[in-house]
Amino acid sequence: MTLPVVTLPTETPSIHSDDQRQHLLDWDQSSLSDWLKEKGQPAFRAKQIWNWVYQKRATSFEEMTNLPKTLRDELDRAFVIFKASQSAITSSPDGTDKLLIRLFDGGEVECVLLRDGTRRSICVSSQVGCAMGCVFCASGLDGVDRNLSRGEILEQMLRLQSRLQAEERLSHIVMMGMGEPLANLDHVLATLDVARSPEGLGISPRRITISTVGLPPAIDRLSKHGVAYNLAVSLHAPHDELRTQLVPVNKKIGIKAILDAADRYFDVSGRRLTFEYVLLGGVNDSDDCAESLASLLRHRTAMLNVIPYNLVSGLPYKTPSPKSISRFKEILVTRGINVMFRQRKGSEIDAACGQLRRNRQA
Ligand code: SAH
């Protein structure tokens, strides 16, 4: 029996676009500390505020009862904690919640909370829209509007965290929502600094994954950054001709340059690479594709994550039949590839990126 999926319009108050207040989540602790110092406050106040926001899940300064009332009022005049609003929540019986977030300028992005055993994973967006143009993906159909700020990415994380029970903790983060994280790398890295900081969300880099279409110079920057996040590369095809059809940015890059950059990342980080492969019926699910994919990955310390396609209305791509999915899997397994077929968690609620936004616009 399939239980109904519940979509609720949940217009929450957002700050007005002409509100001049700063987005607190855009501020790092030392800048906040400087601001507080100017107001004659001791430096430890910044730590207290962070503790309230990131750990105690406070969404207003009023709740911060260990701060003097005058300071709380002053903070409220200068900052907002949440700058966006939540325009819809879709919850599915498998424990997946998807939020549609309306940004201060009217742009919309999506983020998802997945509950799986003791895992509490979140998937967040890094851009409004996407410029990569993957032909099967809903996010990039209208191109990219802009990068999200650090605060806007962190706000998605905090809004999802606030959906947990008090005793539950976020355990994993994937940068796999709308947008190309490596095209907004400065803000993504600043966000993840807060996500992994013990004074922020306290999530180990080992539990944080950055998913990319494969932009070699940015992968090299990630290698130099020196924090061992997991890297997932969206491959989707084993040779350039097909990949360029599916992922147009591939034309100027090519699979070899991507794999070389990913190998360098592995050498520096020691983290096993993940390759993602969206399985599109009749397009990239042939025996030949499986064989070529196996040859590409055989000598790498890598995991292959095969994702049966989530239908996007208006696009011609299909999910392969269960028979062709298992055939594809069998070839890879026989060739010794470490392959995982991702559960279709959340597919009922359009959990593939960009779909909720698109369906609401339709
Ligand atoms: N731009 C990044 C991250 C966002 S997309 C990247 O390309 O990796 C995250 C993953 O979801 C990518 O592997 C993407 O190809 C996949 N995806 C996009 N639309 C999908 C759909 N309709 N069904 C299944 N997977 C999809």
Automatic annotation (TrEMBL):
Record's keyword annotation contains Signal: no
Transmembrane segments: none
Keywords on record: 4Fe-4S, Cytoplasm, Disulfide bond, Iron, Iron-sulfur, Metal-binding, Methyltransferase, rRNA processing, S-adenosyl-L-methionine, Transferase, tRNA processing
A GO molecular-function annotation: 4 iron, 4 sulfur cluster binding
Domain called Radical SAM core: residue spans: 116-348
Cofactor needs: [4Fe-4S] cluster
Active site: E110, C353
Free-text cofactor note: Binds 1 [4Fe-4S] cluster. The cluster is coordinated with 3 cysteines and an exchangeable S-adenosyl-L-methionine.
Catalytic activity, EC: 2.1.1.192
Any GO BP annotation: circadian rhythm
Binding site for S-adenosyl-L-methionine: G179, E180, S211, S234, L235, H236, N310
Compartments in which it is found: Cytoplasm
Catalytic activity: adenosine(2503) in 23S rRNA + 2 reduced [2Fe-2S]-[ferredoxin] + 2 S-adenosyl-L-methionine = 2-methyladenosine(2503) in 23S rRNA + 5'-deoxyadenosine + L-methionine + 2 oxidized [2Fe-2S]-[ferredoxin] + S-adenosyl-L-homocysteine; adenosine(37) in tRNA + 2 reduced [2Fe-2S]-[ferredoxin] + 2 S-adenosyl-L-methionine = 2-methyladenosine(37) in tRNA + 5'-deoxyadenosine + L-methionine + 2 oxidized [2Fe-2S]-[ferredoxin] + S-adenosyl-L-homocysteine
UniProt domain KaiA N-terminal: residue ranges: 1-40
Transferase keyword on record: yes
Residue sites binding [4Fe-4S] cluster per the record: C130, C134, C137
Any one GO CC term of the record: cytoplasm
InterPro entries named among the record's database cross-references: Aldolase_TIM, Circadian_clock_KaiA_N, Methyltransferase_A, RlmN_N, RNA_MTrfase_RlmN, rRNA_lsu_MTrfase_RlmN/Cfr, rSAM, rSAM_sf
A Pfam match: RlmN_N
Miscellaneous: Reaction proceeds by a ping-pong mechanism involving intermediate methylation of a conserved cysteine residue.
Biological role stated in the UniProt entry: Specifically methylates position 2 of adenine 2503 in 23S rRNA and position 2 of adenine 37 in tRNAs.
Family to which the UniProt record says this protein belongs: Belongs to the radical SAM superfamily. RlmN family.
HAMAP family recorded: RNA_methyltr_RlmN
Name of the protein in question: Probable dual-specificity RNA methyltransferase RlmN
Organism: Novipirellula aureliae
Gene: rlmN
